[in-house]
Design brief:
By secondary structure, the protein is an alpha/beta fold. Helix content is 25%, strand content 23%. It binds one RNA strand of 75 nucleotides through helix 5, strand 5, strand 6, helix 7 and helix 12.
Length: 554
RNA sequence: UGGGUCGUCGCCAAGCGGUAAGGCACGGGGUUUUGAUCUCCGCAUACCAAGGUUCGAAUCCUUGCGACCCAGCCA
């Protein structure tokens, strides 16, 4: 992450931070944190937050911690912890310090004792259902729990016994004593500790009471001396509680919570619960399925970290909820891949072409550029011979208007090779074209024929030299822009989100393909070797994104 | 008359009282041995609406309208 050549676009958080720096609000310090709960894999929406938090720190010579918000052991696991660390690093960021909310359990408990001692928290014996009933509604004030005025000594005793494991789950809860009539429901004596007899992926069985998010997050931020606590809009209503907790306690600092709109990307979902469902119900093949908007999925699809970072910068940062079109992400992916992917030829749905006037058994090793705009990326050798394979789509007996490919009696350029003319068509009993016969113009290698214009260029591979490969074409996972708005988002799954082509033939140079290299299959799209299935056995390629297609068909 | 937040081009988004940046998408021209890339041009008399303040308003005020979030012992 070094790019500081172009001026960074303005956004309200950059402005706040710049202003704080000018007024020396935090002695020139900028400290952020990325606080995921390890209850699922990171997705493109998290990328926005990661780029924001790490980005602000980097831009201002500050720090950014990775902090796991691990206060609900029921949903959390080490698998998620590991995947999150891997994904953050893959995106290109390094955390200043690795922390866990669970690191603070003891301090959090001590602070809670303080609240109890000062009459600012009480142990409630109401059941979850009763608490809900007592909470009131959006338009009516709540009413106070009978336990709200329990003597401090009794609260202290009960809370200590909660920790000691003397009670059952749900029997008691520790609540902040704020205001049951507050128009902000979050302030109506929120629960701050509950009893959970659950093994914690990190603290094991050391605790049977766990602090709630609202209570934990602000204190964790304060303990880490975070200056700007950036979170999404839905926490806006929680800010008064964030501030209340810190106002009551003598914490090392009082960070400023600032909310921004989360990413909403068309034709996908970023709800961890729903992504989890797709995985567990096997609508996709795991968290890293290339159709998933997870970082693991995007990575496996061949999307680069740079493209994602660029995307996160381009979409802007505001408090408006907005929907980003998929085209923006695709543009960012293509921009990076266009510059860096090596060009190769691959025929996805082959059609046999015999070049009748080409000598039997002759093979020419043609030198072809790896990148038309970047000669420094070198050349490779592509064998040419009498029988080649072209794309079925690149030949037509009944071409649509403005068709620029191969048709009977017309010519087409074979990329990096000769100009050929289609002389005849061979069909099977069903009337399907199974082979075509062409003749080549020996004078057209590396130069245009004289006196005529060849309208199209198509890609090809030599039948005898090509390698068999499987190619997986990924399309958008959903058929509607906002699957979340459907009665059942599963109904909007695109049945054609994955098309597997098994009869593909790719040029011989791909025998050396690696999973780190990105390729452009000329004229068809950007691909990468599948990191799971493409390394042992045969070649398996994933389509990262198609090439932009400017051909307006009538 | 519950609270909070937000309304600038099809989608994002600058703008912070001095007369509507930019990107994506889209349309058109040029280059091209990828219908790619690259490149040039076009694309809001207009800022949710209506009033008001002002020499001057997307920016300030008032009143409406619309959208989103909140009633987990989730985060």
């Amino acid at each position: 992450m070094s790019t500081n050549d172009t001026p960074l676009p303005a956004n309200f958080i950059r402005q706040i931070i710049a202003n704080d720096l000018n007024t020396n609000k935090h002695n020139g310090r900028v400290a952020t944190r990325f606080p995921p709960e390890p209850n699922g894999y990171l997705h493109i929406g998290h990328a926005k937050s990661i780029c924001l938090n790490f980005g602000m720190a980097l831009e201002n010579n500050g720090t950014c911690n990775l902090r796991f918000d691990d206060t609900n052991p029921e949903k959390e696991s080490d698998e998620y912890v590991q995947s999150i660390m891997r994904d953050v690093q893959w995106l290109g960021f390094s955390w200043s310090e690795l922390r866990h909310a669970s690191d603070y359990f003891e301090q959090l408990y001590d602070y809670a004792i303080q609240l109890v001692e000062r009459g600012l928290a009480y142990v409630d014996s109401l059941s979850a259902e009763e608490i809900r009933a007592y909470r009131g509604t959006l338009t009516e004030a709540g009413k106070e729990s009978p336990d709200r005025n329990r003597p401090i000594a009794e609260n202290l005793n009960l809370f200590r016994r909660m920790r000691a494991g003397e009670f059952d789950e749900g029997q008691y809860v520790l609540r902040a004593k704020i205001d049951m009539a507050s128009p902000n429901i979050n302030m109506r004596d929120p629960a701050i500790y509950r009893i959970r007899r659950v093994h914690h992926q990190r603290t094991g069985d050391a605790w049977c009471i766990y602090p709630m998010y609202d209570y934990t997050h602000c204190i964790s931020d304060a303990l880490e001396n975070i200056t700007h606590s950036l979170c999404t809009l839905e926490f806006e209503d929680h800010r008064p509680l964030y501030d209340w907790v810190l106002d009551q306690l003598q914490t090392p600092s009082h960070p400023q919570q600032i909310e921004f709109a989360r990413l909403q990307l068309e034709y996908t979902i970023v709800s961890k619960r729903k992504l989890n469902l797709l995985v567990t119900e096997k609508h996709v093949n795991g968290w890293d399925d290339p159709r998933m908007p997870t970082l693991a999925g995007l990575r496996r699809a061949g999307v680069t970290p740079k493209a994602i970072r660029d995307f996160c910068e381009r979409i802007g940062l505001t408090k408006q909820n907005s929907w980003i079109e998929m085209g923006v992400l695709e543009y960012c992916i293509r921009e990076d891949l266009n510059e860096n992917a090596l060009r190769v030829m691959a025929v996805l749905e082959p059609l046999r072409v015999v070049i009748t006037n080409y000598p039997d058994g002759q093979v020419e090793n043609l030198e072809v550029s790896n990148h038309p705009q970047r000669p420094e990326l070198g050349k490779r050798t592509v064998p040419f011979s009498k029988v080649i394979l072209i794309e079925q789509d690149d030949f037509s007996e009944n071409p649509p208007p403005k068709y620029k490919r191969l048709v009977v009696s017309e010519e087409v350029r074979l990329r990096g090779s000769y100009v050929i003319r289609c002389d005849s068509v061979i069909k099977n009993e069903a009337g399907e074209v199974i082979e075509i016969h062409c003749s080549y113009d020996p004078g057209t290698l590396g130069k245009n024929p004289e006196g005529r214009k060849v309208k199209g260029v198509i890609h090809w591979v030599s039948e005898a030299h090509a390698l068999p490969a499987e190619v997986r074409l990924y399309n958008r996972l959903f058929t509607v822009p906002q699957p979340d708005n459907e009665a059942n988002f599963l109904d909007a799954l695109n049945p054609h989100s994955l098309e597997t082509l098994t009869a593909c033939r790719v040029e011989a140079s791909l025998a050396q393909a690696t999973t780190v290299q990105r390729y452009q299959f000329e004229r068809t799209g950007y691909f990468c070797l599948d990191a799971v299935d493409g390394i042992n056995g045969g070649l398996v390629f994933n389509r990262t994104v198609t090439l932009r297609d400017g051909w307006v068909k009538d």
